[in-house]
Amino acid sequence: MMNYAQSKYKTNFTPRKPVKTFRDLDIYQQTLQCSVIVVKNIRPKLVTLKYPFTEGVVDCAMNVPLSIGEAHSIRFGDFPLGLRLIEKAMSGCNKMIIYLEHIKGMYGAKVDADVIDEIIARYAESRTKTFHLEQSWKKWNTAPREPGAAGKVRL
Length: 155
Description:
This protein is mainly alpha-helical. The chain has a single domain (23-139), classed as de novo design (two linked rop proteins). The protein contains five helices and no strands.
């Protein structure tokens, strides 16, 4: 016989793997995959087409996972800077979407629109997940203790 919880919630719950390093973050993994696709698949086509912002696209694609990794570490020593870096990653996701839509608009059928649409969707999802990560950091107040607060319990 099924109990109420089993009948109401039919999906199996699987807890997330604990985050020990920035490499465990889904947003880091996803944006790094996107940057690899941009460098391996899209960049060569942009060079062939003489796209004027190729270096900007590559730099922006790399800055997103770099900012996430840096923010994850810096937040312990300088919480406001960590938040600024995570916001820089969100901004980078938005910039990549703009670059990719610009590429589609300029070159249409000359570029693989399906791949570009997939990367746009990944960056949009990563931006939302990064926002939720930022809210989580703020909620749990992962800022370091104030000077002189040694031994005090913070609630």
